[in-house]
Specification:
492 residues, alpha/beta, Rossmann fold, 3 domains, 22 helices, 10% strand, globular
Length: 492
């Protein structure tokens, strides 16, 4: 069904190209049509030092984006799949892109701008061979609160450009708490056009979650409770689908763990627990540890920069348990404990599984904007009517707008009813078992029975005559979604 949505969007773009041939909007429409066949585009945004580049490296599994104590991302940088490793620079004055030199040794990619001012560069496109980038193009954006002149506004310009559509289909927003700057950028990403973009294409990440608990071994548990609370906050609930905790530094390191690092951690794990624990109370204590602690101060500082106190404590617990006996096993466990595995699962169930819908939405937004800018064009009205027809005939768009209605707090109902309705609409994932709240190992019969029960529940509510009208409309959309589950199971 979603493939049909892509084809209908492709045809609409083709019609629009014919209508606006020779106008300024023609090339933009051609780019939008090609975009339908490209990987989903996800922007990573947040304040300076929120951990955007670190998260990008963790997702890709390679140290590509620069990280460090300073302001690392000053230019919007695209990371996309390519068989040849290349970097192209696009000037802001519209002149043609140029291929530029770069270095990538053991650290991140260092791009040679050739003496150009970062403010004169529109974006960098880095092509890299990566299994992850085959499905998703990641876009690293500057910090929204940068003190550097002009840099702080680049993220806003990218996610809410004045004269064109944002290149991103979805966004990962990194934050520590709810700040005015965070809300401003998320609101910029959510315009009110076409399919009313809503929380389904935005996720918030507590990217330095281990720091919330002071690097304690149970820090992620505290971070999850905070993330749950933030996810229920009305200011954020209508802007993001959910809030996830993640220890970004540990996730990045787990993806690039070396055998040498594993051995140094193993040496530390051989130290009696009580002796080592007193040196893990702070970074200074660990680096300047007494002689009975192995490794030089320089080696300990390198480990601290790579793992953080939280990562070292997690590694010690795993190595002492004897359940981990190799660098590969340690890396896998650290990825799990960092929250990276959960984030990748969410990206799959909420973004990749809806990639056709999100890309089609981006295409319709593009056509709608150009038609609105050219209202006197003889075919603008016709194209706008076609957009309405596509939306009306695509249940996936009804799901998106209904999710937005629920999150806007305009629907009056019991909290549990709203949560179950959201799940039926696909906010936890679009697989049949996810829509009815079962586990992945549920049998088709179990899923089918749960689906029929849910359909009966929402039919009863919608026919009761006492429910709020808006709630009834939501229930009817949920019923249609659940009927799709029944049809999907019948085809197996």
């Amino acid at each position: 069904m979603n493939d049909d949505l892509i084809e209908r969007s492709r045809q609409l773009l083709s019609d629009a190209e014919q209508a606006f041939f020779g106008t300024p909007g023609f090339e933009e429409l051609a780019v939008a049509r090609r975009r339908l066949d490209e990987p989903l585009r996800i922007a990573i945004a947040g304040k300076v030092k929120a951990g955007k580049s670190t998260l990008l490296n963790a997702l890709v599994g390679d140290r590509l984006a620069p990280t460090g104590t300073g302001e690392c991302t000053r230019i919007v940088t695209w990371y996309q799949h390519g068989t040849a490793h290349q970097v192209h620079l696009y000037p802001r004055d519209g002149s043609p892109a140029v291929q530029v030199r770069f270095r990538h040794d053991e650290g991140a990619i260092e791009v040679d701008l050739g003496g150009r001012d970062p403010l004169s560069v529109d974006r960098l496109e880095i092509s890299w061979a990566s299994g992850f980038l085959e499905q998703i193009t990641l876009i690293d954006t500057p910090g929204v609160d940068s003190l550097s002149d002009g840099i702080g506004e680049r993220a806003y310009e990218f996610l809410d450009p004045k004269d064109t559509d944002t290149p991103a289909d979805a966004v990962l927003y990194l934050m520590k708490h709810i700040h005015a700057a965070d809300l401003r950028l998320l609101e910029a990403f959510h315009d009110e056009a076409v399919s009313q973009p809503n929380p389904v294409n935005a996720i918030a990440v507590l990217s330095r979650a281990d720091e919330i608990g002071g690097g304690r071994i149970d820090a992620m548990g505290s971070a999850r409770r905070i993330a749950d609370r933030l996810g229920r906050d009305p200011r954020l609930r209508h802007l993001v689908q959910l809030v996830l905790p993640m220890a970004g530094l540990l996730a990045e390191t787990a993806g690039t763990l070396t055998q040498g690092e594993y051995q140094r951690l193993a040496d530390l794990a051989a130290v009696p627990r009580r002796t080592l624990e007193s040196h893990l109370l702070s970074a200074d204590r660990f680096i300047n540890a007494s002689p009975e602690i192995p490794l030089t101060s320089t080696e300990r500082e390198v480990l601290l920069n790579r793992f953080g106190i939280f990562g070292i404590r997690q590694s010690m617990a795993l190595l002492r348990s004897k359940n981990v006996t190799s660098s590969v096993e340690l890396a896998a466990e650290l990825r799990q404990r960092s929250g990276l595995v959960d984030l990748k699962t969410i990206l799959t169930t909420l973004f990749l599984d809806r990639s056709s819908v999100l890309k089609a939405r981006s295409a319709l937004l593009g056509v709608e904007r150009i038609c609105e800018q050219n209202q006197r064009h003889p075919r603008s009205g016709e194209l706008l009517r076609k957009i309405e027809e596509i939306m009306a005939g695509a249940h996936a768009f009804n799901e998106l707008s209904t999710m937005a209605a629920i999150r806007s707090i305009k629907i009056k109902a019991k909290e549990q009813d709203l949560l179950d309705l959201e799940r039926a609409l696909g906010t936890s994932g679009t697989a049949p078992w996810q829509r009815v709240g079962l586990s992945a190992d549920a049998t088709d019969d179990e899923v089918l029975n749960a689906t029929y029960q849910a359909i009966g529940r929402w039919q009863q509510l919608s026919e009761s005559g006492t429910a709020d009208y808006a709630l009834v409309q939501v229930a009817r959309v949920a019923i249609r979604s659940l009927e799709g589950v029944v049809a999907r199971l019948a085809m197996r």
